[in-house]
Write a structure and sequence with these properties.
The complex is a heterodimer.
Chain A: H1 7-34, H2 39-48, H3 52-63, H4 68-79, H5 81-89, H6 98-106, H7 110-120, H8 129-153, H9 167-183, H10 189-209, H11 212-234
Helix pairs in contact in A: 1-3, 1-8, 1-9, 2-8, 3-4, 5-7, 6-8, 7-9, 10-11
Chain B: H1 4-31, H2 36-42, H3 45-57, E1 59-60, E2 68-69, H4 71-87, H5 90-107
Antiparallel strand pairs in B: 1-2
Helix pairs in contact in B: 4-5
Classes of the chains: A mainly alpha, B mainly alpha.
């Protein structure tokens, strides 16, 4: 990753994440088809709701005939971390045209968020619309196409996990986390590692009694708060 | 599975709340500035979210019981971390990660 912020570089920087979208997108298509969704509905869900784990939650709640409101509430809670991520990105686009920021926000994901936070370390803390929009669009269309193909192939492939593709996103978060920690000059390494450790401990304890779909949000709020306390008390 | 209409409107409803979660801060923050304490809070969001999403994948949840280790993901994380340290290149980290898990699943 370098300091160039044009559209072509946006495409290049997003390439590693494409594997993740293909792996999880195929898996989602296959699961959706197996749960009784038509390929059309699978593609619509990926295009309109567009939220990895939230879509798996939707499928399982549709299968169990949950009410419309309870599904919407669950999806809101699963995706509420989007509010935190867009709040973190938004200040870099304060001067940008309104439809540009709405477009960037509308297609923001965990992955493009993490990529952009890494990019900041190379670009003297600036982001650009062409770079971010290209990254978002690449992710968006890869996700829709992969989930559609998954739904269409659903009858033939039963075990998408066999090829290890589902690990692509995990590997990406490991990579981005490491690159973030070594590149971020604004925060002490020891502080960052402490916060990562706190997050891991909270995740482990939280998994015992908080459904994992909501846990990421709960732990994010707690860890960021604890991070502030640790920073002021110890650093 | 529910009817086409019900599923369709569920998708639209969920899409709407997700979209609002994504754009609301972008629109508000064009007009308002965040207090310093909130900015400090948000400065932890990237590393916390990345580690939380990673850690979530290392365990299987059994509500009311201790989480079960996902041996495959746990083991595959090691070569991924090693590749991160050696190459600092995201594409390699992802490729080595995928190949490692595929190999691990062949063995266990």
């Amino acid at each position: 990753m370098d300091d160039v912020l044009d559209a072509r570089t946006g495409l290049k920087d997003t390439l590693p994440t494409v594997f993740g979208y293909i792996g999880i997108g195929l898996a989602f298509g296959i699961v959706g088809k197996a749960s009784g969704l038509s390929p059309l509905l699978v593609a619509l869900m990926s295009a309109i709701t567009y939220g990895g784990s939230a879509q798996f939650v939707m499928v399982s709640m549709l299968v169990s005939h949950s009410t419309l409101l309870s599904i919407i509430l669950a999806v809101f809670l699963v995706n509420a971390r989007m509010i935190l991520m867009s709040m973190t990105v938004a200040p870099y686009f304060r001067q940008e045209r309104t439809w540009h920021v709405v477009l960037i926000g509308s297609l923001l994901t965990d992955e493009t968020f993490a990529l952009s936070m890494n990019k900041l370390n190379r670009t003297q803390n600036t982001l650009s619309f062409p770079w971010f929009n290209t990254a978002n669009l690449t992710a968006y269309f890869t996700w829709i196409i992969a989930s559609l193909i998954g739904a269409l192939l659903g009858n033939f492939i039963t075990d998408p996990k066999r090829f290890g593709l589902d690990f692509a996103l995990v590997a990406m978060f490991i990579g981005l986390l490491y690159l973030q920690i070594i590149a971020d000059q604004s925060m002490k390494k020891a502080l960052q590692l402490t916060v990562v450790l706190v997050t891991c401990i909270l995740m482990y304890i939280g998994l015992i009694f908080i459904p994992s779909n909501f846990l990421v949000l709960v732990v994010t709020l707690l860890s960021c708060g604890l991070g502030m306390v640790i920073k002021h008390v110890l650093f | 599975m529910s009817s086409f209409e019900f599923t369709f409107w569920t998708i639209v409803g969920c899409g709407l709340v997700t979209w609002l979660s994504r754009i609301i801060s972008f629109i508000l923050l064009k007009k308002f500035r965040l207090p310093t304490s909130v900015i400090e809070f948000l400065s932890f969001v990237p590393i916390v979210i990345m580690s939380a999403l990673w850690f979530e994948s290392l365990f299987h949840q059994n509500l009311g019981h201790l989480p079960q280790v996902d041996v495959g993901n746990m083991l595959a994380s090691l070569p991924a971390i090693l590749t991160a340290i050696l190459t600092k290149n995201l594409l390699w980290i992802v490729i080595i990660g995928i190949l490692s898990l595929a190999l691990i699943r062949l063995v266990i």
